[in-house]
Amino acid sequence: MFSYIVRRMLATIPVMGVVALFVFSLLYLAPGDPASIIAGDTATLDDIIRIRQKLGLDQPFYIQFGTWAWNLLHGDLGISIFTNLPVWTLIKQRIEPTVALTISTLLITIPVAIPLGVVAAWKAGTWIDRSVMIFAVAGFSIPTFVLAYILILTFSIGLDVLPVQGYVSFRDGFGPFISHLVLPSVTLGLFYAALVARITRASMLDVLSQDYVRTAQAKGLSNREVLIGHALKNAAVPIATIIGIGIALLISGVVITETVFAIPGVGRLVVDAILRRDYPIIQGVILMFSAWYVLINLAVDISYTLFDPRIRY
Fold this sequence. Notes:
With 313 residues, the chain is mainly α. The protein has a single domain (87-307), classed as MetI-like fold (Orthogonal Bundle). It has helices spanning 2-29, 34-39, 45-55, 61-73, 87-122, 127-141, 144-158, 174-208, 211-218, 223-234, 236-260, 266-276, 279-307. It is globular and about 85 Å long. The mean pLDDT is 80.
């Protein structure tokens, strides 16, 4: 197991290298000249040339990439073009709301989605199964921002029970902290819950058709023992896989959700950086999310042995 983890960690190095090259290339692939954007509409040609020299944009691509990669290895993600602050400092200022939103979404969706998928598979073909599938289709079909506005209209404006937008740190009170996360978490979690529920149902249907499940039923075991002790445990590998992939998919949802609910997180930081073409921030956040995705995949692979003892590395 230890050697496998070491090999996987080493395999992430070339992956992150390719990601870093692609992220840095955004500066050249994106339309517009960063120096012209920083200089403004009233800048002269000399002003633009001076800014390009200051940022090193007048140097060849490989020199710029080498300098950027060397600074990256030393923990330097660059300096924001507009705020003139280190990118890592800006990310640390915004990371708490994003992490809180992601964790709350997982705590809401996973305990709901997995039981729904299990029950739907157990009651396949009944109205319960069809209801779960309708929920799953709706979760895939409704855009995130549309659901966000529906929830705001219903619970914030109509019933006036939850705040419309914003974020309150848990250090300022647990009640306000939770109340500001309920609507964003539900909005972000609907698609994720639909995905997990459908995969759980499909995996459980395959396992429930196996001979050892019928043998367990013939031995007189209760439905709970058959579903949890035999079927769900053997169906856990694809479920764990989709949960890991879903966590990575939450990244794109965070950007939209934080924008709609005005949450000052990393997603909102990316949107503001894109609008202003603040390339260092965009590059730093994409790299951070890529590393997060790689680590999640590693954790999912390691978890396979916990669910299925037959798997050995």
